[in-house]
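<tokenise_the_fold>
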Amino acid sequence: MSFREEYYLHVHGDQLGPYTLRQINHQLQIGLISGETLYWAENLEQWQPLTTLIPVRKKFQAKKWAAIAAAVLIPLGALSWFFGPTVVDGWREQTQREFTPRGAYWAARGVVRRELATTQAVPQFLPFGSARVELGPENTAIVQLEGHVIPDVATNHAAAWKVRLRFNPAVRTWSPLPVQVPTAAQ
């Protein structure tokens, strides 16, 4: 008498085996055989469905993966849509390392934003094409920005800033020279 259990399978009209329980479980879990496949062992009087021997684990379906992906990606997409431009603008304002008109523009925006942070006012700047940037001698720049200042939700004031900057080529950073207080835009 064998101490090892051996099972036979009835697959597509053929009797296959012997198999161990572990082998059958593996075949079932990877999809080589289905739960409706019949099995037989020495102690059985008739063929039985495989699901009475091995519980079938349900596979994680594609629909569930899609639902999980949507549940994660939709909020991330909404957050990116809402905060993305602000994050990108902040990154540009903080990481200018070139003595160019665009570098001066973004550095000037960062200077104005830091100055207004103490008043809790929020600046909204017009695009680069609306700014006037003059690169001067000795790595200086004068940047004239236009935009709006939003001190609270109820008000929105047009403003203009004139920011003087100096570029240090040794460390590739912009630093502000004295900033002029915003004036009403014409």
Summary: The chain has three domains: 7-52, 60-95, 96-186. The CA atoms of residues 70 and 97 lie 38 Å apart.
